[in-house]
Amino acid sequence: MRLLLIVILLGFPVLEALVLVRLSETLGWWVLGWVVLAACAGMALIKEARFALVARLAHGFAQGRFAIAALTDSARTVLAGLLLIFPGVVSDLLALTLLLLPGPRVVTESARRPVHGNLIEGEFRRTR
Questions:
Q1: CA atoms of 52 and 46, how far apart (whole Å)
Q2: What are the residue ranges spanned by the domains of the chain?
Q3: CA 48 to chain CA centroid, nearest Å
């Protein structure tokens, strides 16, 4: 298990370097621009995730519940931002995959309640 982890940790940067070298031979200096823009996008994503997490948690606490979906969404965004900051095309593709995959669906309380025909709940006052 440790050997597999070491191979993955050492193999990923080597794979990134090989892909970057091959692309730079083909595309030239455009690859450097891609790496710089991806790093800027990653930093912006991490900053946005921080503010979004605070807003989502505050909204959940105001409703009296703890929003685990806010934490998982922000964790995915931060991981995608870190992968974008890491120079390379493979990590950028992994980051885009993380960003584009749909997250877990949050079922609201109103969706969990069964519907009973034409029953309408509420308060009313009779006036004469």
A1: 10
A2: 2-103
A3: 11
**Are 31 and 23 spatial neighbours (Cβ–Cβ below 8 Å)?**
yes
Question: 96 CB contacts (<8 Å, ≥6 apart)?
Answer: 80
Say which residues have a Cβ less than 8 Å from residue 95's Cβ, sequence separation at least 6: 38, 42, 79, 80, 81, 83, 84
- Rounded Cα distance, 53 and 68, in Å: 10
- The beta-carbon contacts of 70-78 under 8 Å, at least 24 apart in sequence, are 72/103, 72/104, 73/103, 74/49, 74/50, 76/103, 77/45, 77/46, 77/48, 77/49, 77/52, 78/45, 78/46, 78/49
Q: Which two tokens stand for residue 33?
A: 């621009």
Q: Is the pLDDT of residue 15 over 60?
A: yes
- Give pLDDT tens digits for 84-126: 999 989 999 999 999 998 876 555 444 555 555 666 677 778 8
